[in-house]
Amino acid sequence: MKRLGMSERQYAAYAGISRGAVSKARLSGRLALHPDGSIDAGRSDHRRASTTDPSQQRGRHAPNLRPVPQAAVGAVAETLEEQGLPAPQASGMTFLQARTANEVLKARLRRMELQQKEGELVDRARATALVFRLARQERDVWLGWPARVASLMAAELGVDAHALQTVLETHVREHLGSLAEVRCEFR
Predict the structure, then answer these.
(1) Same structural domain for residues 133 and 95?
(2) β-sheet bridge partners, residue 33
(3) Percentage of the chain lying above the pLDDT 70 cut
(4) Total domain count for the chain?
(5) What are the backbone angles phi and psi of residue 4, rounded to the nearest 5°?
(6) Minimal CA–CA distance to 60: which of 15, 10, 118?
């Protein structure tokens, strides 16, 4: 009886992979088989290509991947340099470098999540709102200060209370205006 397709050994030689890889692909259902159990090479190639992780492929059948965008290469280079690791060469980035950068970023994210849960990190929007509220309260206290102290100061100095209050309010407002120019950046 003639076989319709290839044996595992023949397919391994044809596909450029080990016989163990062919056996593993057969057990996991990534190969298309003829009714007699032989391997249908064309359908198996297609099925393997659609179900195999490209990062796990080597040799002549490794897929031709699209070039990595320059922005991504820059981000990987920056991450690696921050960790004191070599940056990608001008000729391109290796998969190992990209994977290393990814692992570094995942570790940072986990560390930040832990710090947030432990209360070491605060939400930027919440911190900004708190600083704004505190600054507004301090401004309001300063705006009320001339009215509270003008009569006491006028009595000590022997001057008109209303005139002193007006002068104090003018200078306090000028000072608060200069403080308003200060911008807080939470980065």
Answers:
(1) no
(2) 39
(3) 82
(4) 3
(5) -80, -35
(6) 15
